[in-house]
Fold each of these.
Amino acid sequence: MPEREAVQRAEALLREDYKSCFQGPSGDRVLADLARLGRMGETTFVPGDPGYSAFREGMRAVVLHIFDAVGLLDLGKWADQFKEES
């Protein structure tokens, strides 16, 4: 039990670290850029190129992980923001 609690505390601390890194106006700009790079709001599929499709999906998975860790996994918000900035 103590090991499990230590893991949970470490995970909670890491989530707070993510939130700290991505707060404020500069954090919003970085998150918007990550949403663009991760192709949030659009497909990662590349017709005829399964390798590149997998690569783009991997990038997207990293971005989704960050958004989840920050507590902002609202895909619609970030997709809309990216479209406005393009």
Amino acid sequence: MTPLELASAPHRGGGGVIFVIGAIIVGAVSLLHAIKPETAWKMRRWQFRNQAANEPSPAGYAAIRFGGIGGFAVAVVFVLLGTHVL
């Protein structure tokens, strides 16, 4: 069975599909932050009056990238749990 067939199986209920869709969205955003951590700053920079002074350092970008990798790993586990593969 494919993951989509597992998620939509009649005996599993409808909640698993929403869980998997949410995990996929979180995984996509986390993967984006892992690949290009500047996007995390671009999503938040409107909050600061002096944007140049508040831009993260290279270590800050590395922390964003590390968090993106961790978030993606958690999202993959949630997708597998939601499709009852694990």
Amino acid sequence: MHRNLHTRVSMKPSTPTRAIAFDLVPLTATRDVNLRATPSISADVITGLKQGSEVTILERQGNWDHVEVVISGSEERQGWAYGSYLTPQTDPAVKP
């Protein structure tokens, strides 16, 4: 009796990338940064954020933050920015 055993091998990473949800954390861009369509340097650029731009983090994937920014008035955009270029806002009313 001859048994034909087939093994399926997946070429995908063994650990899936997980998105982490945040409670709308306000951040500031520490330098000019591109807001991208997906968390990748090869993704389309949605808009550019100037240093000092205020954004709200919606989720994180690896080193990328999914953020929302108010472009003008009430127009909002969402996209991905590299997290190293964003820092938590400090409240000027609170002093150490």
Amino acid sequence: MAEQVGDMVTHIATAATEQSSATEQVNHNVEAIARLVRESAVGAQQSAKACQDLSGLALDLQKMVGNFKLENAGAYAAGDWRADSPPAKARAASAR
């Protein structure tokens, strides 16, 4: 009987040690996940800021491009903007 009690105490102590080790691993993994979440949040904030900056630059570019006047805007709208198109060849010839 005493031997059985001793075996049970040994089993309980072994199980407690295993549970403690498993708990430490879980805590370590939870901390790693929390760190990754924080890093992802920082990355998302940086991406959002970059998108805002890019949007502002696109608006600035649109304003700058809007300052240009085209001689033959209708040809450009019709798709005759290629260098080998008749309107482009005529412009090139008249510029000589």
